[in-house]
Amino acid sequence: MRKLMLSLTAILLVILSACSTETATTSSTPAPSTAPASSTAAATTPTTEKKLPRVAFVYIGVPGDGGWTYEHDQGRLMMEKELGIKSTTVENIPEGPDAERVFEELAQKNDIIFGTSFGYMDAMVAVAARHPEVKFLHSTGYKTAPNLGTYMGREYQSAYLVGMAAGKMTKNNHLGYVGAFPIPEVIYTINAFTLGAQSVNPNIDVSVVWSNTWFDPATEKQAAISLLDKGVDVLAAYQDSPASIQAAAERHVWGIGNDSDMGRFAPDTYISNPKWNWGPYYVKTVKSIMDGTWKSDAYFGSMKDGITDIAPLGKNVPADVKALVEKKRQEILNGTFDVFTGPLVDQDGKTLYETGKKMTDEEILGTTWFVKGIKGVIPK
User: Fold this and answer.
1) Where is this region: Disordered (predicted)?
2) pLDDT for 41
3) 11-26, pLDDT tens digit by residue?
4) Tell me: the pLDDT tens digits for 275-300?
5) DSSP code string of 315-362
6) What total of structural domains would you count in the chain?
7) Cα 368–282–361 angle (5° rounding)?
8) 111 within some domain
9) Which residues span the domain enclosing 295?
């Protein structure tokens, strides 16, 4: 019996010795035996990394739209790559009651939330008030709060340049424009497009119809056809889909898209379009929140900031037109030309801004009138 007990004891010692050896090989290198206990603990504790914020994006459409949402998503991906953040996206969220529910759910799980459509404004204002610890950024809106900022770019600068190209390409001086919704952002862009076209061809008029959509290819195509049936020979649009320029291509009419380079959808009849570049803004904004320097504001970036520009002019646009547009582009970039500088006359013939007088940002962002030469009404 004693031999048996001695044998069992020996076996137990071997097992304990093996366990001790296994633990040593999988742990950090032990500190010297002369080191205090606190130093040993410090040596085996990994370096604590700075906590990354939880970031979410709410999209009105899907990145596959090839336009507005696609460019926002490209900006988000740039932010992820440069800051090492994995963000959340929620797609196809309609403007209305559902939007507030989505923002509320996201606010309970995230530190920063970007909303990328005008109609999210009131929902974001309401949710931001309930979650002061969360930072909200709203694209194209005008309401702010201590934890809610807005961001937009001077797309009208790009629209003016594209309008110049349209003015040089038309043969009958009748242009068409499919507007999305009658909000200032769309109205002043149509105005800039018209002013650009008239700067090279004062006989031009622009017919406007409204689709009341951001992304509905079938509806947008029908709106485009209604203008094509009127005989316009250049067609522009302010939606997220390429439906309008595709409809124009079917009639062998020049087309102008929006938001992103849409040349691939109608390569033979494509002129160009305003193009967004949201990445630098997303990187800068998230970094400022991370380092504690962010303050709510109403960002209104420019071509000089790089947030907006024009897509490459189409392959069939003449070289002299490209040169003309580039010359004016450089004037915008160096600050020697401002789109909304008087004389500015409304469609009823009333001079709203005398020669040399510039519209303020507040006036631009509150635009509710069309310039002279536009045929169409702005619904109340």
Assistant:
1) 24-47
2) 35
3) 333 333 333 333 332 2
4) 999 999 999 999 999 999 999 999 99
5) TTS-HHHHHHHHHHHHHHHTTS--TTBS-EEBTTS-EEE-TTPBPPHH
6) 2
7) 25
8) yes
9) 55-153+278-301
